[in-house]
Amino acid sequence: MKNYFLFSFFMLIGSLVFGQSPVGTWKTIDDETGKEKSYVEIYEKDGKLYGKVAKILTKGKEDAKCDKCSGALKNKPIQGMVILYDLKKSGNEWTGGKILDPNSGKEYKATVKLNGKDKLDVRGYVGISLVGRTQTWVKVK
């Protein structure tokens, strides 16, 4: 009985500690139209978070290219593109990274924070976090 209790306790603690990660696939929702736009796969590499466009959901834009991007990303396919990068864990959020808006080609500072277990608040901003906008992404099951 004692072993069962210890096993249950460690499983609960493990799920609380390891369940608090945005790693996985998230559905992006356009904050202006409310329509589904894409799936972004968030992964961890060398202690930092990254996110790449796994699938474009907007009809007719599946093969879209980043024509407004600059440098090496200019005219590259948006699907497969890393648009979220270099975020580091800071308390209960991930900060210090950048997010790329492939529609405008603009890059913003980024903060990511879990909002419950199935929602992710992704904030892009210029300068300070107060000057920006937040999208809520939904976990893909």
Topology:
Layout: H1 2-18, E1 24-29, E2 36-45, E3 48-56, E4 82-90, E5 93-101, E6 106-114, E7 119-125, E8 132-139
Antiparallel strand pairs: 1-2, 1-8, 2-3, 3-4, 4-5, 5-6, 6-7, 7-8
Describe the structure in your own words.
The model is unreliable at 3-18 (pLDDT under 50). Helices cover 12% and strands 48% of the residues. The chain starts with a helix and ends with a strand. The protein is mainly beta. It has a single domain, classed as Lipocalin. It is globular. The chain has 1 helix and 8 strands; from the N terminus they run αββββββββ. It has an 8-stranded antiparallel β-barrel.
Primary descriptors:
141 residues; mainly beta; Lipocalin; 8-stranded antiparallel β-barrel; 8 strands; disordered N terminus
Shape from CA axes? globular
| Number of discrete helical segments | 1
CATH topology: Lipocalin
Q: Which residues sit in consecutive blocks of at least 5 with pLDDT less than 50?
A: 3-18
What Rg is obtained from the alpha carbons, in whole angstroms? 17 Å
Distance between the termini: 35 Å
* Strand fraction: over 45%
- SSE succession: HEEEEEEEE
The overall average pLDDT, rounded, is 88
> What kind of sheet is the major sheet?
8 strands, antiparallel, barrel
- Structural class designation: mainly beta
- In which range does the helix fraction lie? 10-25%
What is the strand tally? Answer: 8
Strand order of the biggest β-sheet = 1-2-3-4-5-6-7-8
Could you say what the CATH architecture is?
A: Beta Barrel
**Domain tally:** 1
CATH class: Mainly Beta
